Every structure is written in structure tokens, then in C-alpha cells.
Amino acid sequence: MQNQNLSDVFELAGRSYRSRLLVGTGKYADFEQTRLAIEASGAEIVTVAVRRVNITDPGKPNLLDHVDPKRFTILPNTAGCYTAEDAIRTCRLAREAGIGKLVKLEVIGDEKTLFPDVAATIEAARVLVGEGFDVLPYITDDPVACKRLEEIGCKAVMPLAAPIGSGLGIRNPYNIRIIIEQSTVPVIVDAGVGTASDAAVALELGCTAVLMNTAIAGARDPLLMAHAMKLGVEAGRAAFLAGRMPKRLYATASSPLTDLLG
Amino acid sequence: MRVHINGEEKTIEEGTSVADLVAGLGLAGRRVAVEYNRQILRASDWAATLLREDDALEIVHFVGGG
Questions:
Q1: Is the ipTM above a cut-off of 0.90?
Q2: Mean of per-residue pLDDT scores for chain B
Q3: What is the largest CA-CA distance in chain A?
Q4: How many angstroms separate the CA atoms of A210 and A9, rounded?
Q5: Is A24 on the interface with B (CB under 8 A)?
Q6: pTM of this structure
Q7: CB of B62 within 8 Å of any CB in chain A?
């Protein structure tokens, strides 16, 4: 049992990871809370955003003084980009800042829902893969879009559970299942998870991992929720490996039907 | 001489290199990346790149995000 857990790793862009929970670093009260939440989550991959340095106050403490890039895989995102061009520029800058070639590609298509612009995401992914990036695209829970991104050479596909920051949980588990069945790269549910049971559902469906930010940072007690998410992901993964019983419409008794009192 | 840094106008002296500018902002040795007139400028080229009137620089770093 223990041995099985230890050997249950997954490969992403040539590295192997044990934790199936990827966490963001946005919306925390301060860097110390960010650090403690990551610690409690057990995550090994941590997302960050790329933004302009505030040139009127450039010496402020930096996130990466608190989240050690030697210990964690830092995954820069292109959040806030609405065109393929801006997303590509952001990825090039992220790589130049010395973090590596792994990027979370997001090209947003709509301000209100933050749903991805699928065509622009595919276009940006093609360019970035061509430039040697390891691209992890945030994408709609659309099996065809996921297929295209995999064919282009993305190292994973990251379908959304629900809109970013909505906490609604997996809105279309059937699409997620189809994406898992067809994919030969890791499937990481990204965005929309609200609580530990949502994370468990993602892993029970057979997702490789789940990525979240607001569900932890937006909880009343972020550190306790980070711990809950760790357990949810572990429970979901174990249940997936265990193979759940079939659902039945009618009861089947758990106790013997023989030797009852006369 | 006027240049644009992160969307803001700044007046600098002739002969200022990108390396001088980055150091002047207290960012030497920090994990930042520079885009010079919309092209990535490698850190190894900062010292040799002298700023000219109306150049546009983007200097970015990593912040919290999801």
C-alpha cells in the first residue's frame, strides 16, 4: 500500500512528480501566507504571473525570495493576455528571467467568463512549441481543442472545471472523461475547483492532476484548505486506482440473506 | 533624452546602457527580464545596448498568480 503510493508518480515535461496538486500564488494576504499555503498543499509545481516591475518602487520584496525555485518547479502563466502575440511575448520574457522553458499558456477570450480564446491558444501554442517551450495550455473542456493542442506538441492539456475563480467544481465530467480517454499527455484540470470534494472528483475521473489558486487563497482559512485539498487529491487518486464499484439503481444487501430468525 | 520604461516616460542621460538603467533601478542581480523595443534583450547584451531617444523598455518579474 505504502509502496504503491511512493511509486505513484507522473511525468510532466521530462520530470517526475509525486504531488498531483499544482497551486497558484495569487490573492494571498502576503508572501508568508503564500509560502505556508504551498507547504500545506504539498505542491511541487507552483504557478506565478509575469508583470511589469513597479519602477517607482522597484526594490520591494519578490515572490521568489519566498518560493525557492530550486525546490519548486515554477510555472509562469500568461494570465491577462487576450492575444496570441501578448501570450508569446510573456512566455519569452518568462524564459529570459531564468526560470526555464515550462509555461502555462492562457489566452483569454472574454473578460466576464475568462474563458479561453481557443483559436488564439492553438495559434500561440504552435509558435511556442516551435520555439522550444514546454507548453501547458489552459483550455475549454473541449475534447477537440485538447486533441489539437496535444497534436501540436503541448506537454499536457489543462481543461477548465468551471470559470476561473468561480469555485463551481467540474461542470462537465463527461467531457473531462473523454479528454482523459483520448489523451496521451497528462490531463490537468485547471480552474474552477471550489473545495476538496471537487479536487477528489477530478482525480477520481482519472485526471493526472489538478491546478488551483482561488479555492485555497479564497477560503476563510487558506492553510487549512490547502491541507484539505492535499487530502482531497490523495483520496481521489487512491479511489481512482482502487476502481470504484459500479453504480446500481436498486439495493444489494450487505448482510447475508440466509440464516435469518424464523 | 526621453525613453519609455514600463509605459512611463523617463528622462535619462545620453550614453546610458540598459545595464546602467537596470542597476539604477536597484534591479541588478534580480530575476528580471527585459524587452527592448518589443524584442527580448538577453542579460548578456544589456551592457552593450545604449539607449536612444524614444526607446521602449519593458522590465518584468514574477508576481503571485494562478
A1: yes
A2: 95
A3: 88
A4: 14
A5: yes
A6: 0.93
A7: yes
